[in-house]
Every structure is written in structure tokens, then in C-alpha cells.
């Protein structure tokens, strides 16, 4: 089975970090981990100055990455993956990474 990293960079709406972090830790990570193929998650905070204050790295194990990506694309904003209004959508990004092979 192939292994990937899904890396999500994000910020909270100005003044809403507490709400953002509570939602992310108590709701969002569980919702993402419910997607078949997503097996673990770890969150980070930027040290110093950076465009995004928060980063999450998800471990993905699948032989069908497009199916995982499709599922991730259709769930946000639904009952199975509610999205907090504390998320600043203007500055976030998500990407998938695979091990580098020479």
C-alpha cells in the first residue's frame, strides 16, 4: 500500500484562535480520520513569522489516492464534516506528498 502525507496549512479568523483550535482538535481531526485511508494526524504551530500559523500533517495509506482526495473534497460543510466559521479560508492550503525517490 502506498503512503502519502497530506499537509494542511491554516489560520484562524482574527481573534478566533481559541474557537479554531477547539474545533480543529475536538471535531475536525476526528472527521478527517474517518475518511478511509487517513490513518493518523499531528498538528503544529509556526515558530516565528510565517504565512500560516497552523499546520496539520496527516498520514495516508492507500492504493487509490484519487478516491481519498475525492472523499476529502465532498465532505467539508456536510453533517459528517462541519466547518467552523473560525477558519480563515483566504490563507489556507492543502497538498498531498509522496516519498521522494531519486
TrEMBL record:
SUPFAM superfamilies: Dimeric alpha+beta barrel. InterPro entries: Dimeric_a/b-barrel (IPR011008). This is DUF4286 domain-containing protein. It comes from Sphingobium cyanobacteriorum.
